[in-house]
Amino acid sequence: MPSPNSSEPVQRSLGWDRAIATDAAERAKLHSYIALQLAAAGLQPPEDDSTDHALAQYSVGFLQNLREKNRLLADYRAPVDRRIEAFLTRHFAELKLDQPLRLPSSSLVLDRHGVARELSLPARGDHFENDFVNSYRVHNGVLHNPRFDRRTTAGTFHIVEGGPAIAGSKRTVPKAVFAKLFQAAMSPPDELMSLPYTADSDSPARCFVSLLLRPLVCPAVAGCCTEKRMEVRFYAPGALVSNLDFVESIFGNAGDALVPENDAGLDVEHWTGHTGCVILAPHLERLTKKELGLPHISEATPLQIADRMCWEDESECYNDGSPFKAVCRTDEGVVVTLIADNYYGYCKKEVKSQISYSANLLGGVEEEHAGGAMAFASYSLGDEFQVDSRRYNNRTFEDIARDYSEFIDVKPEGYGVDRLYPEVIYIPENAKVTLLEQCVKWQHDGREQRIPLLPENVYIAPSGYKIRLDKHPAAPSWRLVGTAGEGLVCHKPCTVSGGGKSEISKSLRDYMLYGPIFVMDLERDFATLDELFSRDYSGRWHPEYKQKPSYSERSTRKVLDSNRSLGSMIKLLTPSPDYNDDYNAWLASIPNHIYAMAFIIKRFSKPEWEGNWREHFSVDIVNGELGHQLKHGRRNLVGTYLKVGLDGDQWRTFKLRQDFIAAAKVQMEDDITASVVIPGRRVGDVGPAVAPAESYKFVENCEFRLFQRPDDAVHRGLDKQTELDMSRPGNFLCNYEPKDRAAIAAMLSSTIELGEFSDPMREMLIEAGEQDSGYVVSSAHPRMIDGKPSKNPRYLQDRLDLTSPLETYVAHRGMRLHRALPMDQPVHMPVAAVLSGRRNNPPDPEQGIKQLAVYSPLHYQELPELFMDYICSLTGKSPSTTGAGSEGALTKGPFNNMPPTVDLNDVLVSMILTGLSGFSTPAGHIGPRFEVGHDISLLIPEIWCRLGPKERDPQRMIEQSLLEPIADYVDSKGEYVPASRLGYRITQRFVVKYFGRVFDNPGKVFSDEILQPELQDPEAFAEGVRHIADAQQKVAQRYFDDGTWQLASPPIQAILSIMATGEWYGHDANSPVVREMFTKEYLLASDWYQARLQTKQTRDVALWKRHIEYIASQRDTLASFRSDIDLDARLAYAQQQLEIASSPQYLKDLVGTLGADPMLPIEARPSKPAAELA
After folding, report:
1. Do 1056 and 1108 share a structural domain?
2. Are the CB atoms for 630 and 600 separated by under 8 Å?
3. Which of 295, 372, 968, 1092 lies at a CB distance of 3.0 to 4.6 Å from 669, suitable for a disulfide?
4. Is residue 1017 in some structural domain?
5. What does residue 1038 show for φ and ψ, rounded to 5 degrees?
6. Which residue has the higher pLDDT, 696 or 3?
7. Looking at the structure, do residues 1072 and 1100 belong to the same domain, yes or no?
8. Do 793 and 863 share a structural domain?
9. Tally of CA atoms within 13 A in the half-sphere of 797 that contains its CB
């Protein structure tokens, strides 16, 4: 993957450095380059450009020669185009078409990032408009508002007959109809062919534009596998060039397809062998069904009637005139898609769909609809911190100086400086970091050594623990912040639209609230605190609590005892089933503000005070009376609070622990993820955060920029990251209002509203107001549609892990130090936790949307119940789409062009081999009463990264009553409610035990009505559960209706049957026979898993043979071509890999991987008849 810097290859591919991409001189050069391209293509560049005229004077002969060569070579195709056209010829041969299906013979090639962006607007104008898009050049980038502000999921996915089975949720397109659609796509109307760049010219250019992508399919895992990429070819009529700007900004521009260095066929090490093609053709929706050759309804088959592939009225348009995409694919490895719309999300999702197609055929990998982050627990360390690395990994500075001299520059004073980032300082194992003295000090060679404590530096101990100086965001004070050396990769797969994929990687810091520590009555409150601090707590235990400690040898510790941690104190003062009723009643009688005071006093307490805490805390005198804000010395104390949902219109806010700091996060995923499962025997050290497993999953983001929907940014100042991003130049913006001079002036005149923005956005708006002309976009002003703001404003956000390389670097260095890994061993970061996301909604009778809000804040489901959810993937209405309902298998239903059983089988094998547990969190609502938005999505990773592998083990949680099973029941109406489908949910005991690592008063965070949503409205809960079961039944029945159930693995077949009919050969979901099918032992011994491994070997052998044949075919062609391509070396590599893949040992080595889905019917039967278990 390219690293985020301004090197020429990265700049050509991604335009990563915005300062370069938006520089006036660079843009002038780009305009000259575009003029040369246009002229070479026989198109007229914009007039009145002296640079272009000067260029033309010296190049007229050259351009005439080039144009003539292009004319003579009109039938020559780039290698990728040859592969696409050869597939089309084979697939449609039976139609005996008059003309073969050919891609455009000429197109304007987008061979570097930035060309498409310039072409999407007039060369000397700031606005372009046609029936499909309204585009603006704005102060902070470019704004494109397509005719529809979001994609639709209803009836949009059409697949051409032939090839793998077509799921019943898709519409089947006859081959002859697709052929006519393709031919029509090659003849767009002049309006669509007009290039915006030349829109103001006397002779506007009309052409296709083309682009080559190489999206990621398999991530590289050092020492285990290299990265694999497919090739995707885009064609669009000139007016839609902004769509290609969009996709190249996300996936990177792979260069000119004609150049041999860009031929994926020669990239034997990294090409998957799969080719995609996407053609934008929104004019296709104007074609009638009759002219495309679809039959009259009287002559149509039942399938054609069901798919609306027939007509009653001759004027009926294909797909009823609505947007659609038509996909032609087989198992050959080529997929061609026509998209009859220009909403940008369709283009991105189609690349996702084609990555998924490649992953399905390649085997061993998955394309996942996921978000994710690596989270590092962080803490406020107060004013002073004593490093003690030996306690955590028994390492000293001498050890790391010896082992890591490659990146540590060791100083004579006994510390080190990072060779790449000098702001990273490596400190000794016994160093003391002191805020009061503003230094880090230690003993070395009998002398005290000191270095300054600076806010721009990160100080890393030999254990990997990281310390930095941090300014309190809401107080005039500084603090030391410590961050764990080992992080936790939280993976949010199978997450529906609006389920929190992006939120899991966002920092909680921007969502925290700050306020004073309130004192009601100083003397009375301090007296209560004295009682609390001096109380004997040995009598708190419930008589039946079996783990009650013995106090015969030592008495219970006092609250302010330095041997009692803050966490222990929180547990002590939180009501619990382990405590007796009288003690719990006493805890309940303590006012909330007393809790806050007690915890902050504990936080600052020192042993030398000897219990005399009163003299260190006070309040000011205000208007002659005692004030109400607690002070420590001269310092006003500030508490940190977090919103966790709303009760009606009221925010539910809770005070965080005084030592809590939001986890440091490194973004890993956002939407399109490539993942691979590697056998544990090949991986090595994965760190202490991951439980030992048969295999491990590794993930990588396929996108360099993320199509973000910043829901909170409409509230000025709330989403600071979005305001920072959108204040920068060079943004790609969609569905926002273009603010012209008058609108900017009006915004600037509203001092109060302007002041609510964070500094970067406010300063950018002021800067835009100082310009003489032009437009600007405000993060708080989405596009207006029918008088209402769009719910789907979007922008392309640079990936945070790439824009902040120091944070990613420090994270990796901390893990290497913590694990004491030698330099020749990679730092592996496999997935440690699965936290899928749901989109839950209360009932909305007017919209016909039924309740989904039956889930509590955190659920665990064993694999049978989890896959019922994954198969159905129910969602409430999301701002991203126009509908609600089932998104299909693992939420990829709207995007997947292959049978959904392939992904289901892959995910099942992955979950079993990795042993990852299926937890899930809600977005939207919990019950009809409590709205939580994304608050839970943000919160749970903070809890999870503070738990060890054993603490995250669901079986252990069940044993400790931290999780409770939800049982089926009969409601008050006498109707059966299959609530066991929801699995397990957290209990109040879980909240008390684990939420105390984040909150002062964890028992208050979730009431019984939140943990048990049926208490809010029993009838609505029962209806919601039945709705889920009904939806699961209907979705499962489709697999039997379309026949794809036969392609499912035996465990999935069993679950599909149980979902559809309630049983599988007499077994229900609770049958031991069914449960056993989801175990590792069953999987590894099964014939169907062995078939997957054999299929993977067969496909790998075929791919290496294909590589060898292609290189051999190109040797003569490229012999005289001056190139850095070493064909002999590549041929030798392919031959070596073919030998390895063909060996019997290769099949053995595949055990523990996903293998590849054969996509063949499987006959599954239970191991025992149900009668034997009766």
Report:
1. no
2. yes
3. 372
4. yes
5. -60, -35
6. 696
7. no
8. no
9. 24
Residue 19 burial class via C-beta count within 10 angstroms: exposed 0-12, middle 13-18, buried 19 and up: exposed
pLDDT, residue 1172, reads 80
Asked, for residue 793, whether it belongs to a domain, the answer is yes
pLDDT (average), residues 889-902: 88
The H or E element spanning position 277 is: strand 271-280
Q: Which two tokens stand for residue 697?
A: 């999953």
* Claim to verify: residue 217 and residue 235 sit in the same structural domain: yes
Q: Looking at the structure, do residues 246 and 113 belong to the same domain, yes or no?
A: yes
pLDDT at 48: 47
Domain boundary among 619, 649, 668: 619
- Which residues, including other chains, have CB under 8 Å from residue 61's CB and lie 6 or more apart? none
Is residue 415 packed enough to be buried (19+ CB in 10 Å), middle (13-18) or exposed (0-12)?
A: buried
What token pair was written down for 657? Answer: 């622990």
Asked if the model's pLDDT at residue 732 lies above 50, the reply is yes
**CA distances from residue 508 to 470, 532, 800 in whole angstroms, order as listed:** 16, 32, 15
The 3-class SS string of 1132-1171 reads HHHHHHHHHHHCHHHHHHCCCCCCCCCCCCCCCCCCCCHH
Q: Identify the pLDDT of residue 51.
A: 45
b/e sequence 1140-1163, b meaning 16+ C-beta within 10 Å: ebeeeebbebbbbbbbbbbbeebe
Take residue 746 and report the two structure tokens written for it: 């009006």
- Closest CA relative to residue 907, chosen from 1106, 811, 1048, 722: 1048
Q: Nearest 5 degrees, angle CA 830-CA 923-CA 941? A: 35
Q: CA angle at residue 28 from 22 to 34, to 5 degrees? A: 105
- CATH number for the domain that contains residue 885: 3.90.228
Query: What pTM did the predictor assign?
Result: 0.94
pLDDT of residue 883: 46
Tell me the average pLDDT of the chain: 93
- The residue with tokens 């969602």 is 875
648-656: long-range contacts at Cβ-Cβ below 8 A with a sequence spacing of 24 or more? 648/929, 652/930, 653/513, 654/999, 654/1000, 654/1001, 654/1004, 654/1005, 655/595, 655/596, 655/999, 655/1000, 655/1001, 656/512, 656/998, 656/999, 656/1000
Phi, psi angle pair for 243, to nearest 5°: -65, -35
Integer Cα distance of 294 and 313 in angstroms:
12
- What range defines the domain where residue 715 resides? 705-798
Q: Report in angstroms the alpha-carbon separations of 651 from 641, 643, 647, 930.
A: 11, 6, 7, 10
DSSP H or E run through 402: helix 397-403
CA atoms within 13 A on the CB side of 867: 32
Rounded distance between C-alpha atoms, residue 547 and residue 196, angstroms: 75
**How many C-alpha atoms does 815 have within 13 Å on its Cβ side?**
26
Place of tokens 């990613």: 808
Q: What value does the mean pLDDT take over residues 425-453?
A: 96
Domain limit, last residue, from 418, 450, 483: 483
Buried b (16+ CB within 10 A) or exposed e, 1008-1026: ebbbbbbebbeebbbbbbb
Enter the tokens of residue 978: 């299959």
C-alpha distances (whole Å) from 681 to each of 823, 909, 934 are 20, 17, 38
1103, 1150, 1151 from 1142: Cα distances, Å: 11, 12, 15
> Is 915 within 8 Å of 830 (Cβ atoms)?
no
Residues 6 or more apart whose CB falls under 8 angstroms from that of 318 comprise 181, 284, 285, 287, 288, 289, 292, 294, 324
Of how many residues is the chain composed? 1174
Looking at the structure of the chain, the number of domains it has is: 6
Residue 30 domain flag: no
Give the relative orientation of helices 900-914 and 344-362 as an angle to the nearest 10 degrees: 60
Q: What is the dihedral of CA 981, 692, 681, 827, to 10 degrees?
A: 110
Pairing of strands 208-213, 228-237: antiparallel
| 1014 and 867 inside one domain | yes
| HSE (side-chain half, CA atoms, 13 Å) at 1071 | 24
Q: State whether 157 and 135 are in the same domain.
A: yes
The tokens 């955060």 sit on which residue? 689
Contact 235, 103 (CB under 8 A): yes
Ramachandran angles phi, psi of 579, nearest 5°: -100, 160
Question: Does residue 506 belong to any structural domain of this protein?
Answer: no
